[in-house]
Amino acid sequence: MSTVSLGERPSISTSLRDATATAHERAERSDFIDDLMAGRLDVRAYSTLAAQLYFVYRALEEVGDDLNAADDTKPVVAPIFDERLRRLPRLAADLDVLGVDISTVEPLPAVTRYVAAIDATRADPARYVAHHYTRYLGDLSGGQVIKSRMISHYGIDKDALTFYAFDGIDKLKRYKDGYRDALDGLPIDEAAHGRLLDEAVRAFEFNEALFAELTA
Ligand code: HEM
């Protein structure tokens, strides 16, 4: 017997991409990113961004480790959790090469709010997934363009851009397709799916707020 599915909901990956498309465009066109990508800024601007991202990834990876280790939250986080994505040691190494002593850097107000939001997802792993998606899929996509522009515009050494190098992942496109399949198989209900979408839009907004503060 065949069944007709009426009004089937879009998959998690499709709905995420759709829900964040406008926010993505805004982030990509923000003054800071636009200036950085056009070569109108300098190495310091990139270093400042990398230093602020240090606090974001510290939270993202600490919370991810904890959620992936706990029996009740692991089923939601494990499908997307991947050691090859871990960025904090790379950011730390990049900052060293860039001559930034992170112990002297304070998070900007937007980053403090961003980190608090990531931390709050300890209570709701579906919301955690939103932050994971927003940053890592971004790094695997636009991040690759950022890397090449930082080299060509500012002469930043590749050794200071290991943040964008994903060892052990050779085909980024294939990896992202696999990531989207993992998203689509997450064991979450409709309500959690809705919270994931809301949180992804917020995650983009935190990035936009960071860019606005970097411009100011
Ligand atoms: C320099 C600015 C940026 C450029 C040039 C850029 C470019 C791109 C491109 C070309 C894709 C499509 C990749 C694909 O489908 O395989 C993409 C996807 C994505 N980008 Fe960006 N991006 C930029 C900034 C950002 C920012 C600031 C964020 C968030 C922090 C972000 C998050 C994402 C995410 C989550 C995806 C995956 C969308 C999906 O397929 O679900 N991007 N980006």
UniProtKB/TrEMBL annotation:
<dbReference type="InterPro" id="IPR016053">
    <property type="entry name" value="Haem_Oase-like"/>
</dbReference>
<dbReference type="InterPro" id="IPR016084">
    <property type="entry name" value="Haem_Oase-like_multi-hlx"/>
</dbReference>
<dbReference type="InterPro" id="IPR002051">
    <property type="entry name" value="Haem_Oase"/>
</dbReference>
<feature type="region of interest" description="Disordered">
    <location>
        <begin position="1"/>
        <end position="20"/>
    </location>
</feature>
<keyword id="KW-0479">Metal-binding</keyword>
<protein>
    <submittedName>
        <fullName>Biliverdin-producing heme oxygenase</fullName>
    </submittedName>
</protein>
<keyword id="KW-0408">Iron</keyword>
<feature type="compositionally biased region" description="Polar residues">
    <location>
        <begin position="1"/>
        <end position="17"/>
    </location>
</feature>
<dbReference type="Pfam" id="PF01126">
    <property type="entry name" value="Heme_oxygenase"/>
</dbReference>
<keyword id="KW-0349">Heme</keyword>
